[in-house]
């Protein structure tokens, strides 16, 4: 079974984003970029399934500027076999991403698609569900554990209040949550090897997809700051303040 | 045209998150509620009593019992032509179903809104809440998930909506429910609690989390955790407060042994009063805390429990 994994180049996890001074967007000039952490988990899960003999080829797909090649190479250094870049310098919103991925799925015919549950830049949490909807496939979102069978996959999902277990007919889309696995560190020899792995580039137009944005950003602003408070000396003072000043207990 | 809110429920009772979603919907026009479930009459009655609701649509069938997205999304799509806005609370359920609805309708989704500017323009946090985006959609039908903490719930009673049974759609046959493992707790639900006590990596182990629980029980609070504590395996993931977990805004939030990473602050900085207990006085959590106590949590937390008992 071929697995397709989508990876997004996003702001690095440790960088604090700020709006541009004119409010027209988010300041990304000279900001460190990395693979979206949830997508790293998605790649890792595909590799583990391959190592367990439950998956064949792993194809990674990224959508965006030519800089996304770097993200694809990272995924291939982790262990993915082949990369596909859908190259565009235009803004691509989740619905358009889902349509482009559907077009790639139609070409590649994978048995399973794994994506991160959410990208840490726009925090949309939409792409996997949209892709599943467009394909008419089952969706296993927020996966904490997957168990691949011959024609179905069991997904343990992180839900409010605990875990839910679903059985999905294959092919299906799974979105990776935090506890699915811990991604491996990339070793230097594998980075060298990844450079030789195939990477194809496609354009949205070749895939017949209109990526015109539906959402327009009118303003990007910094949230109202929270004024730091006071330090208390001990628990007695803390309890007194909570009872008499804040009146919250 | 009006708004349709997808009810969040367990077939027995209506989840309060629905009331927050109705509050957001009410800013957009008349509000109907959809209850898709199985043997969910009690939920329909509760929805009909919600203040300001016009109509409650009930689709009752076995394959809606677990709100599987593959079955619920087409049902919502079938109703969409009658509405300008489709809303759900940004719970794991709402987040699971709504994007599938949006894709089937070929419209964009606005996730996790915290403000309604006009019928087509909304405010939503991006980049872990470090930026607030004001976003306008061009689509005729607006699919929206609502950050519950940003909208005060409407009253659960006082309404007298008509309840209308609608024909269920077919079982898509793509997915089936196998079971769940829900956290059993006598404590209040994390997302709705008035007081939350959270522990971080500083707590050190799963066993030590008992300290956090003792303090929570003393305060009648829910227990939360930072991502670091979840990553370290101290507590289950559904305890997680933050960008990738739950967003909470209780009256009192007590952060114990939590440094205050960006992604954690995103999930709790709208709390009314924040208390931080941490041995590192440089920890970023102190920058948002109303009351900071610098000290060893293993000494301070038991002392705090003792002081609260006085």
Strand element count of chain B: 16
User: What structural class is derived from the secondary structure elements of chain A?
Assistant: alpha/beta
Number of helical segments of chain B?
8
- Shape, per Cα inertia axes of chain A: globular
* Pair with the biggest interface: A-B, 81 and 91 residues
Describe the protein.
The complex is a heterodimer of chains A (249) and B (310). By secondary structure, chain A is an alpha/beta fold. Chain A contains 6 helices and 13 strands. A 9-stranded mixed sheet of chain A has the order 9-8-7-10-6-1-4-5-11, with helices on both faces. Chain A has a two-stranded antiparallel ribbon with strand order 2-3. In chain A, helix 2 links the parallel strand 4 (58-64) and strand 5. In chain A, helix 3 packs across helix 4. The radius of gyration of chain A is 21 Å and the shape is globular. In chain A, 49% of the residues are buried. Chain B is of the alpha/beta class and 310 residues long. Chain B has 8 helices and 16 strands. In chain B, strands 5-9-4-1-2-3-10 form a 7-stranded parallel sheet, sandwiched between helices. In chain B, helix 3 (69-79) packs across helix 4 (92-105) and helix 5 packs parallel to helix 8 (297-309). The mean pLDDT of chain B is 96. Strand 12 (215-221) of chain A pairs antiparallel with strand 8 (131-137) of chain B.
Annotation keywords:
heterodimer, A: 249 residues, alpha/beta, nine-stranded mixed beta sheet, two-stranded antiparallel ribbon, 6 helices, 27% helix, globular, B: 310 residues, five-stranded parallel beta sheet, 8 helices
């Amino acid at each position: 079974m071929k697995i397709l994994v989508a990876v997004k180049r996003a702001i690095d996890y440790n960088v604090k984003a700020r709006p541009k001074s004119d409010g027209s967007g988010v300041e990304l000039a000279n900001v460190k970029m990395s693979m979206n952490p949830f997508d790293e988990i998605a790649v890792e899960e595909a590799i583990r399934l391959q190592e367990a003999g439950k998956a064949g080829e792993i194809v990674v797909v990224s959508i965006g500027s030519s800089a996304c090649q770097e993200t694809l190479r990272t995924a291939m250094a982790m262990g993915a076999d082949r990369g596909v870049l859908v190259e565009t310098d235009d803004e691509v919103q989740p619905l358009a991403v889902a349509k482009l991925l559907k077009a790639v799925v139609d070409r590649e015919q994978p048995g399973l698609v794994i994506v991160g549950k959410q990208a840490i830049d726009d925090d949309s949490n939409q792409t996997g569900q949209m892709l599943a909807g467009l394909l008419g496939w089952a969706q296993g979102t927020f996966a904490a554990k997957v168990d691949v069978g011959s024609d179905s996959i069991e997904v343990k999902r992180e839900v409010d209040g605990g875990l839910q277990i679903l059985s999905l007919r294959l092919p299906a889309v799974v979105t990776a949550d935090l506890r699915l696995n811990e991604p491996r560190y990339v070793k230097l020899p594998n980075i060298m090897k990844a450079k030789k792995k195939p990477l194809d580039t496609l354009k949205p137009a070749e895939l017949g997809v209109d990526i015109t944005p539906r959402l327009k950003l009118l303003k990007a602003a910094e949230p109202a700051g929270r004024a730091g408070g006071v330090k208390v000396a001990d628990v007695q003072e803390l309890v007194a303040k909570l009872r008499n000043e804040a009146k919250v207990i | 045209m009006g708004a349709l809110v997808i009810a969040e429920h367990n077939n027995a009772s209506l989840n309060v998150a629905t009331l927050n979603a109705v509050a957001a919907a009410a800013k957009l026009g008349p509000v109907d509620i959809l209850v898709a479930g199985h043997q969910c009459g009690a939920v329909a009655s509760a929805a009909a009593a919600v203040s300001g609701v016009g109509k409650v649509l009930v689709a009752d069938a076995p394959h809606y019992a677990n709100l599987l997205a593959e079955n619920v999304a087409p049902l919502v799509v079938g109703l969409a032509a009658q509405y300008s806005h489709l809303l759900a609370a940004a719970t794991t359920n709402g987040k699971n179903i709504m994007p599938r609805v949006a894709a089937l309708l070929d419209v964009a989704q606005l996730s996790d809104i915290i403000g309604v500017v006009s019928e087509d323009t909304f405010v939503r946090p991006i980049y872990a809440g470090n930026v607030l985006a004001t976003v306008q959609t061009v689509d005729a039908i607006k699919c929206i998930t609502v950050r519950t903490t940003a909208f005060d719930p409407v009253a659960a009673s006082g309404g007298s909506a008509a309840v209308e049974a609608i024909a269920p759609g077919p079982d898509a046959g793509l997915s089936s429910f196998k079971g769940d493992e829900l956290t059993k707790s006598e404590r209040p639900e994390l997302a709705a609690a008035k007081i939350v006590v959270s522990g971080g990596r500083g707590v050190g182990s799963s066993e030590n989390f008992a300290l956090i629980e003792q303090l929570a029980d003393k305060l009648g609070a829910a227990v939360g955790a930072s991502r670091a504590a979840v990553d370290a395996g101290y507590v289950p993931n559904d305890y997680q407060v933050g960008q990738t977990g739950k967003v909470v805004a209780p009256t009192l939030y007590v952060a114990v042994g939590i440094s205050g990473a960006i992604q954690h602050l995103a999930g709790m900085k709208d709390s009314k009063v924040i208390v931080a207990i941490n041995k590192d006085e440089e920890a970023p959590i102190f920058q948002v805390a109303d009351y900071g106590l610098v000290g060893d949590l293993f000494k301070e937390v038991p002392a705090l429990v003792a002081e609260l008992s006085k």
